[in-house]
Every structure is written in C-alpha cells, then in structure tokens.
Amino acid sequence: MSLFRAEGLVKRFGGLLATDHVSLAVEAGEIHALIGPNGAGKSTLVNLISGLLPADAGRIVLDGVELTALTPHARTRAGLARCFQISSVFRNDSVRDNLLLAVQAQAGSSFRCLSRRDAEHALQERAEALAQRTGLAEVLERNAGTLAHGLQKRLDLALALAARPRLLLLDEPMAGMGPEDSQQMVALIRGLAGETAILLIEHDMDAVFQLADRISVLVYGKVLTSGDAAHIKGHAEVQAVYLGTEVAG
Ligand SMILES: Nc1ncnc2c1ncn2[C@@H]1O[C@H](COP(=O)(O)OP(=O)(O)OP(=O)(O)O)[C@@H](O)[C@H]1O
Questions:
Q1: Whole-structure pTM value
Q2: Ligand 1 atom at shortest distance from the alpha carbon of 218
Q3: Banded pLDDT at 194 (limits 50, 70, 90)
Q4: Where residue 107 falls among pLDDT bands split at 50, 70, 90?
Q5: From the alpha carbon of 40, which atom of ligand 1 is closest?
Q6: Where is the ABC transporter domain (predicted)?
Q7: What is the C-alpha to C-alpha distance for residues 89 and 242, in angstroms, rounded to an integer?
C-alpha cells in the first residue's frame, strides 16, 4: 500500500475547477515531482494536501490515517510537513533559536521525564544535528534574516525536517536560486530520500529530472500522466502542452 494517497480531490473557485478529481500516490522513500504550466493547479493541490485549503471532495490518507478533516497543524503531527515558497523563518532570531523552536514543538512533552538541563541538552543536540544535515552548522549564531537566499531556503527545509515528517511537501525549493545554490539543494534533497518521502513542486526541470523517481504532470487541474523521467520526456502530449521540445534532447 502506498505511504500517501490523495483520492479524487476537487477544488472549485467559483466556476473554475482548479483541482479536477486528482488522485495521486507517493510511495515510501519516493521523490514524486509535480509539474505543470502556470495556473495548472499545483499550488492549489499542495494547499489541499497540507490543509491550508479545504477540499470540496476527495480524501487524503497518510500511512493508513485519514487526514482529510484535520487542521494543518494536526496533519503535521500526523507526519506531513511542508516547506513554503514564502519562508516561515523568524528573521530576527538566530538560526539556532529558529531550529530550537521547531524541535521543541516536535518534542512536545516527550522529554518530561528528563531534568530540565538534560531536556535542554537533548533539544540543542537535535537542533545542531539538523543544522549539520542541512549545511547550516557554520551559521548557527547568525540572525536568520541576514542569511543569503540559498541558506534561508535550507533553514526552511531544516524547520520542516524538525517535524520528522513521513511525507515532506516542497513547494519550489529552488525558486530564485542561482545554479550553485540549486545544485546544493538538489544534493540536500536527494540525501533526504531515505528518511522521508517527498512531493516536490518545481519549475526547474533539470532539478526535477535529477531528483524525481516519478513525475506527475498537472494540466488544467487534472493529472495528464505519471511516470519516470523517460516516460515524461517521451510523452508527446506533455511536450505539446508544457515542455515544448525542451526535453527531447
Ligand atoms: N484563491 C483563489 N481564488 C480564485 N482562483 C484561484 C485561487 N487560487 C488559485 N486560483 C486559480 O486556480 C488555478 C490554479 O492556480 P494554482 O496557483 O494552483 O496553479 P499553479 O499550477 O500553482 O500555478 P503557478 O505555477 O503559476 O504557481 C488558476 O487558474 C488560479 O488563477
């Protein structure tokens, strides 16, 4: 059984059917990319999955648990974390404090049997381990707002990872990055694959083809096709509606 399933999701904005009976599965350990032209409904779909928008119909199941009626916060507790296109970082706090807040939120009362000192130590260790993973160890004491764009994106990712997700939603993690930062982000995301499944929305097709085990193409709110990179590159209709001849080579 798939780790994550969206079944028959529908979202209408007035007369516009932005999400038209979308079904999508993400397997454990998989990086599943969602691509499609502007206005195809990618952000709407991710908002339905993370719970920022209520669906008009359909259901969402993660690891056998139905999330459809849950708030975004409850979905995060159930194992679904999201990285935002617009950063959720506290800009006036240090990277360390941002990470501490996130790991504290995840830990909840799980350290209550420890002394205060030991609990604080455990939280610091988790925060530092996250910084290490995401290449932020050198900038732990910096104010988050002073970080360059690429590092802020990494901090965003680290904050989402603090929730220890089973499924991570990444909404354009390479947006606004130069080639060097993009490549580092690609390596970072690839390194997460064993730890969490990923649903990735990304316009950078090089990154998508490097990362994705499976790609779903959304057009006018519907899934046109799903498959691996070779399938997508060879799909005539995908080329016609979205990719042009760009992927032929
Ligand atoms: N809150 C809203 N109210 C009305 N229409 C909306 C709303 N949000 C999105 N839409 C419309 O729904 C359709 C899908 O938009 P959406 O932003 O999900 O597409 P997208 O694939 O994410 O686009 P992009 O790649 O440009 O971010 C578009 O026609 C958009 O204008």
A1: 0.90
A2: 21
A3: confident
A4: confident
A5: 21
A6: 4-245
A7: 33
